[in-house]
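so my prof wants the structure for this chain in the tokens format not the other one, which i didnt know existed until like an hour ago. anyway here's the sequence
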Amino acid sequence: MANLRIEKVFGAINIGSFRISAMIAGLTADGEMIVLGSGHRAADGIRRGYVTDMDAASHAIRDAIERAERAADTQVSSVWIGCANAGLMSEIREVDIETGGRRIDQDDVEYLLAEARDRIVPQVGEPRVVLHAQPAHYILDGAQGVSNPRGLHAQRLAVAVHVMEAEAGPLRNLMEAVQNAHLEVEGVVGAAVASGHACLSDEEKELGVAVVDFGAEVTHVSVHVGGMLVGVSVLPYGSNDVTDAIASAFGIRRMQAERLKCVYGSAIASPTDHREMIPLGAEGKHGGEEVQRAELISVINGQLGRWTEDVAKALKGMGFVIGRGGSGRQIVLTGGGAELAGLADYVQQAFAKPVRTGRPPQMTGLPEAHARPGFAALTGLVLYAAADPVDIRTHGSAWQSTSRFGRMNLPARVMRAIREYF
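here's what i got, hopefully its the right format
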């Protein structure tokens, strides 16, 4: 790895409610992404994706990036950050222009994207801000799914843009926590976007797939159809709620409940669970008290039943029909909660859909400890940054509409002149 030439370095911080993780990766001249260093620590000052203590959050962010810098033996001044909540919502919006039936060229596409930017991106000071505004596909006279309209003829040209918005206040708090850690914010990426970037193939996105990112205090449910992200829903429920239910049921501390869940817990019951006794205390010390493993699994299943109901409602709201013969093809589970034993089988039984566990892709230098579902969003951040997808917020700012007037009909020319000058 020492002989590889690094062309560009990317820093990323995923700000979760359970842990804050950081990664520094380099892009080689051959286009390979190499992990130079990574690190994580417990999250402080974060509650269900929102910053609740600015000083504590900034300290945790600084600590996480310093661990990654020591492992990489390099420093970064700017990072991409993952946004887990902040009132995230997304939808597909269409913007169209008239082309008069002539052949579409590059200038038409440039103008359309600039028009989409002006119509979609809210003004400064609005209560919501746009995180992503990415063109998914083009539409020619009602024909959808066109990836490249150049060279084709149409009366009207439209673009379907996936727009993800966040509440301005919580997002500003998140960015300020990073800036207080002496880092510049290169960009903010929705956690669901990052997870999908890390876990999904292009074919899965084309066929139709749902990603369920089961985090500590937040679950992200996203749906991809026809190669595009069509919706994201954020549920204020995560694997920590399962831990709290265990602690309450057995009268133990959260730390002990988390250990029980990770070591003995499962989403699927077995015939031997009633005969297996497990200690409640750490290393078997809690007054010598033991319980049947079946009782622990019963508590876990009770919480997972509520969770799957909420996930099912979110999927239905985005048009992903569960059950046999539904519109969705597959469900991918990721996030730290996806590491619970038997969860994929549990979800597959509940939704009657093929389910797999999504992990970060194999990358040179990625530690085994960070090649788990809980770090998929972190890996997705650096992959997203390297891919540099088109975003209409920064696209076409230098485009001059006057270069197109000579080839347009009179009504279109008048309307564009009115928009531009008035």
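also thought this was worth mentioning. The chain has a mean pLDDT of 86.
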